[in-house]
Every structure is written in structure tokens, then in C-alpha cells.
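Researcher: Good morning. I'm working through a list of sequences from a screen, and I'd like to move beyond sequence-only analysis. For each chain I'm collecting a predicted structure so we can compare shapes side by side. This is the next one on the list. No need for commentary yet; just the structure.
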Amino acid sequence: MSSNRRPTKQGEVADLWQYENQARESGHQRIAGVDEAGRGPLAGPVVASAVILPRDFDLTGIRDSKSLTANQREKAYQRIIDGAEAVGVGIVGPETIDRINILQATFEAMRLALDDLGTSYDCVLVDGQHTIPGLGIDQIGIIDGDAKSASIAAASIVAKVTRDCIMAQLAAEFPHYGFEKHKGYCTEEHLRAIAEHGVCKIHRRSFSPVAQKVDDKDCPQQSLF
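Model: Good morning. C-alpha cells for this chain:
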């Protein structure tokens, strides 16, 4: 099987360059894929990445980050960093997530990631049905795009590895919560830690069940990102 193709959930084979090629056939030359990691957790930032891949990039091991092991993601991440034309990352912390909601915070992280590319682009492939508001450039929203587009798959890997690294660093600062294990997601271990220790400054206070435990007098929120 070609390294540029991968099995889909239905057993068919998807060409991971199909959306990039369609964009080029429409006259676009610089195509950025965008994806995020961390929309669902109770703690930590939402992280987005934007990636522009060269046409001849070897897609071996490049696919939806959720389908890869941590070791596979790390190896794929390094290949993307070394071989991509440009990589950008955007980080939006829990204070902003609580203030503007997670959807708008995700869009903001995506805009920051595109700005961080440091180069021009003329089309954006976005994971999901929603495109990025206010971007002023051609966009294509692709449901399950991290399984269908090479650029989005690469962005999903960069976003996931970056966020996991951040959560591992935050685990050292807040050792009672096990962030290095669950990365802030709503696991039984995390819920037990919240019940025992309360919330900390990286918890998303607008998210249930964190909202039920918030006591502003005991745990003032501070911006970390």
C-alpha cells in the first residue's frame, strides 16, 4: 500500500493528499492544515497547530494522532518538524477558555497557529465542519479531517504532542492531579483528585464538574498562557 494512503473505518482506502490536490486544482499553492488538541479536558490549554507540507513529504506513520501510540506520535512529530515547509502552534489557556467558551478559544488557538507559521498561505484545511471565523482566506472544513488530509493529520500530531508536553510540565507544578497520565481529561483518577484537593489554577472553571468545586477564595485563577 502506498505510504500516501491509509485504510478508512469502512475498510476503503483514502488518499491523504486528496483535499490538498483538490485545493491545488482550484489554483491554491500554499495549503495549511489545521487541527487542535484539548477541547474536552477539564484542565489545561487548548492547543492548535498549522502545518504546510511539501508535495513530496513521505506520509509513512502520519495519520490521525488518536490512532498512534505515544512513541509513534513522537517519531512522527519529529519527522514533521524536520520535513514540513512550516509549522505553527497556538495555545489558549483555561482563563480565556472560561471567558469566551471552548469553541471560540479553539478558533483563537487556530488563528494563533496560522500566525505562527511565519509564512504565507492561500488555503486552509480545517478539521471539523466549522471553518475559522474572520480569517479572510479560502478554507475547507473537513469532518474527520485528521483521517482524510495529510496536512490536517500532521497538524493533529503536532498539536497533541505539544499539549501532552505542556501537561507533563504542569504535572510537576501540580503533582496531586496526575496530569502526566490523563492530560486533564475527565477520568476517575482526575475526578478523585479534584474531590480530594479541589481545583487548581489550570482547571477550566466553566466545565462541569469543575464548576461544582470552584471556590474563588481558596483558588484564585491566574493566567499561565
